[in-house]
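Protocol step 4 of 5: obtain the predicted structure for the target chain.
Materials: sequence only (see below). No template structures provided, no constraints applied. The aim of this step is simply to have a reference model before the mutagenesis design in step 5. Sequence pasted as it appears in the construct record:
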Amino acid sequence: MGTDNRTTGAFLFTDIEGSTRRWERFGELMDDAVAQHDALINAAVDAQSGRVFHTSGDGVIAWFDGPTHAVAAAIGAQQQLTEHEFPNVDGLRVRMAVHVGDVVVRDGEPYGWALNFGSRLNDLGHGGQILISEPAVAAIGGTPPESSTIVDLGRHHLRDIAEPTGVGQVVVPSLTTEFPPLRNAAHQDTPSAGSDRLIGRDDDIAAVDRRLAPSSVLTIVGLPGIGATEVASAAANRAASRFAYGRIDCDLERIAPPRMLDAIGSALSLGPRPGQSLEDALVEWLSEHAVLLVLDHVDHGTETVARFGRRLVAAGGGSALICTSHRPLGIDAERVHRLAPLDLADAIALFRTRSANAGTPSTDTDELIGELCERLDRVPLRIEVAASNAAAFSTRELLDMLDRDELTTEGEPTIDAIDVAVTGLDEQARRCLAAATTFAAGFDRQAFAEVCAPELPAADASRVLAELVNRSLVHADRSADTAWFRVLSSVGSAARRHATDDQLAAADDRFASSIERFVDTAADGLRGADERLWDRRLERSFGNVRAALGRAVAGGDLRRAAHLSTALWEYGFMRMREEYFRWSELVLDTFASAHERHLGAVHGVAALGAWTRGELGATQEWAERALRLEREYELDFDLPARLALINAAVYSGARQPPLEIYAEEAEYERSQAEPYFHVNVDTRNSIMATWFGDLRAAERRALRAVQLARESGNASSLSFALWALGTALDETDPMRAESLLGQGLETARDVHNDWVTALVQMSLASLRRRTAGPLAAIPLLLDLLDLLWRAGHRSHLWATLRVCVLVLDDIDEAGLATTIDAAADDASMAMPPLPVDAAALEERRARAAAMADYPAQHVLGSTTPLPALMTATREALSAALENAPASSTADTHSL
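Step 4 output (structure tokens):
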């Protein structure tokens, strides 16, 4: 081991915004772009005598003699990155943060919470932005680098930090200075004045206003009823003052295409001159007079308006054209702004506002109103129509009426308009659209080609999909790594009316086969280097898997139901998706009379789910049945059943797992090719060694697991191994353990691995309690209690409550601590505590027995239900945090 030195360092943190999407979209081009990005940042760091000591595909961490150099390097890097542009990967925007804090230097490398703190600060920012922490601002004093200033952005919460921290922004005139609110800021919806229809449309209005320019054409595109007219009007109100002749409107909804130019001429009070066509006269006048011309509802005459728009742009001058349509005009100079359905919160707000304006404010829950809004596709006009019926019907009744097609649509033109749009498609596009309605949660391009257009070449399938998006019949969400598409229910109903039963049944079968292939590929992907990508894909597609399982169960398809309810057991386990384990129970209940060999794996997954809920009897029964069926029918090795038995034994108080089953499980995982399984074995062996007090062996095994996990690139493996290593070093090297656990926590959270997150967070809370005091542990514990309660993961919840026992004891809540300690013992479902915590628990029990005045009584009673224990614990911890003097919580993030 090298010599440890504690020192104060200035650090620069960088991270590429949206890197995952670019890696997937641009592939090898991204390799070149990141290499150029690294070279530019390294040069900027070198110019300020800094040193890059950590790199990843997304950014770097660099170390400087002082914060002034770190800020100067950030400015230089942002300037170089801005000039470089990176056109081959749609630009690179890099967020940066500067922080000053204490670290321990071992063998030339820094460790400590300052690095985790700086990374979390950087997470608040946006591409192109440079944030700076309060300690760094203080260290700089009044002399920031030349030409820069520091703007105070107020105090903001960082994850797991009890108190908000001051955040500043480094502002340089040559760089972008205006950014959205920091990522932790609560979103405030500010409805535009004058129309309830504009709730949730402020960003759209601002975007349209921002993109308007002289001699330009901008088309606002969206489904009927989406609010294009209102957004166009509001944006035109904002922009009108920039045009010398103001704004002029012309509604073309009921104008036949041959008469559209006449209608525009009437709006402008113009007619043709002798020897001149009307179109020539309009273009000539508009090129000489700066007008913002708003043409509403042009979709049935796009060819006429497109020709007019081309000539207007070519003529130059100061005029601009805003059009609203279901599809773009298709001209080269056109700028298109697509309107998506409202966010769910905005849809709920719109329903409440409209029903209140009608004199009958809804008293139903947001959850119920949200369900109604989802059924209405979150389309503003459809929500308004439903809200107008709220005087006569409850939200539940409105949902029932939707099910029976009885909800009045008087005054709602969207249904007829959509039917006309579907009818206007060619037969191939119409058939593909109907097939796309089989997806319950949307689809990507590949799934569309497989399920909706299997007879077409991939390029032709993409062309059909592009046409459906262009016509606003399919909604495209491009905010994720890859474009995600969905057919809104109103469009789907119209499309299915134009398809035969045989066509729809064939699409349903192709969908089910596609989902089976997807779950197998995803299960493998989650164990590899692309885990983050597959986690996001699964989260997005989970509704499709759910639908496929439901249809298989309803249709009596045991093979498919069993496959879908077991293939993703690791996803359900690691992401704490209790719903997934309930699927296995549904299959067992539905197919109880089927031949047992088809249900072997289903029993194993059901057993693992029962363990997470603390149902030890069901765990034992299902796991033993799974292993019996495995032997009788020579089925595949049942890993979930064995994990259920091992965990049930260890968590119920037996520190040593069933040795025969443990050996089988370890031998199986060692025999697998993926490093993922080998990391699991080494990590579990390390933790067992820690529990038995052999810390040297625990560290050795954990180091091997960390090295193998880094080589594999799998985030869950790495976070699991980092937890084991941090736990092994907990007592002997708390500073390094803090850093390792912090890295493990962020890594697990990044891929939404709630199971590992809970393990790491428990260990980190325990460590902080002992090194920084009980208040430092409370934010972690409160967050963890909420996570585990939502997930229904009782075994981890009881283990977390045991850590709470020690914290409650520290903050003079010994009576409540005694109650929880006794309840945890009765539950017999808590992971064994770390040796240091086990000793502390035994010490407090001995103290209670020895001291007559020690409050060892059960303040809530020894049989208090778990919900009441949870409420009392949250209230006691929160009160301690709120009532603590500011000085005692200001530094809870540091050791």
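Step 4 remarks: DSSP finds 39 helices and 15 strands in the chain. Residues 185-196, 889-895 have pLDDT under 50 and may be disordered.
Proceed to step 5.
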